[in-house]
Amino acid sequence: MAKIQLVKTGGGCPESYNAYISGNYVGELYLRHGVFIVSYYDSTLLRGYPIGDGIFDYDERDGWLKRACEALLTAHNAPDEELYEILTEDEFNER
Length: 95
Description:
Elements (H helix, E strand, L loop, with lengths): L3 E8 L3 E7 L2 E9 L2 E6 L2 E6 L12 H16 L7 E4 L1 H6 L1
Parallel strand pairs: 1-6
Antiparallel strand pairs: 1-2, 2-3, 3-4, 4-5
């Protein structure tokens, strides 16, 4: 069962993540100037406008990340259970 691995690449301005499935890069997520964009390879899958400007508000991150991962999994034709886990770059590299 596929699971999105999100590796945080920016803590704010933009808040950003690289997305991996089974250790393979599939896209990126970033929130900059109030626009959240999810890309699958070179295609934009999702564009949204959360409350946060360069970083998510404390109560909206989980919802936006789940929505992003659902879009990535749909694009990748993977099942939608256990959508994501957030890793540091060190944790990702240890696997």
